Amino acid sequence: MVSLNKTPDADARPTAESLLAKEQEAGRARLRVYLGAAPGVGKTYQMLEEAHLLKRQGVDIVIGFIEPHGRADTEALIRDLERVPLRRTTYRGVTLEEMDVEAVVRRQPAIAIVDELAHTNVPGSKNRKRYDDVLEILEGGISVITAFNVQHIESLNDAIARITGVRVRETIPDYFLRRADEVVNVDVSVESLRTRLRQGKIYTVEKIEQALSNFFRKGNLSALRELALRQVAQDQAAKAHDYREREGLEQAAIPEKVMVCIASRGSAKKLLRTGSRIAGRLASDWYAVYVETPQEELGRIDPEDHARLMENIQFAEELGAKVIKLKGRRVADALIDFARREGITHVVFGQSARSRWDILLKGSVINRFLAEVRGATVQVVPTGGSKPD
What we know:
- By secondary structure, the chain is of the alpha/beta class.
- The chain contains 15 helices and 14 strands.
- The chain folds into two domains: 3-247, Rossmann fold, CATH 3.40.50; 258-382, Rossmann fold (3-Layer(aba) Sandwich).
- The strands form three sheets. It has a seven-stranded parallel sheet, sandwiched between helices. A five-stranded parallel sheet has the order 12-11-10-13-14, with helices on both faces. Strands 5-6 form a two-stranded antiparallel sheet.
- The two termini are 33 Å apart.
- Residues 1-12, 354-362 and 385-389 have low confidence and may be disordered.
């Protein structure tokens, strides 16, 4: 794994020869992700520099999509690279340009550069999100180099909202990062990034002061930078775990297993993001577990509850969880049996606001689980009732 500081020092980044060797390795379309803490760290510039190095080595490389944001240095790097023509689409009277996925696949280069990975495609496009476009390109046998910022990682959505006060709407599922062969951190200091902003290298002049006072505050940038560094470290740990497994090498003495308990009522997104982060830190597989009671069988469950359950299950799968449906009259009994049988070591529960009287009358699944399963670490995440999160 490589941590890059955006400096002229060529020794601080992978050589073109190493990139080319990895592209040829195993004959599999490879995915390289450049990850940044915030806009302006130099992800796009870094991708284009690597593209020129590879082109000089004779690699057939094209640009599928790049957004230069009016930056002269980025525009200069684009000029000598082949660009696959964009697809023009009219939506609500406005003509928009999107990456032409089918044209990229027809062109069949060795590598395609794709920027702005978290972008949502215009309605009516073949794929809803640009990361779906990238997965299609990879399936077509074409390697991809792409980039995005740490705030777009789905499992970090709650943490980013707490840090910045902004709920990021365009997110990338964690399974996309797990598909990556390499995740490269493009890192600059907080002061350097704020200086770039003041110099007009990130946003237009009228947006600079607002950005410095909001998203680009020193505290925000420090926290985002730390998250990006941790993400790369976790990715490295996960890949090391996979390598040991493939090679038949000894794993950790006690394999960690994570279980997130979801219900038919309310959104479980906050719980699932928490479980995904825990599993990522431990480089372990994880489960999203739902207990179907007799009252919640198909045909008896409330339609709204069923719709929300299906939404939670889909979200869990997008984050990479293995979804398990248990059946039982008592939720606690089913969860306890599963945890013991599978050797679960970490459990995530949601806790909505309940009165002490309600808990005394109906009991608490969490309290029962804590009393019966003593070998697992239990994390309780406040859910704030059944409102979507």
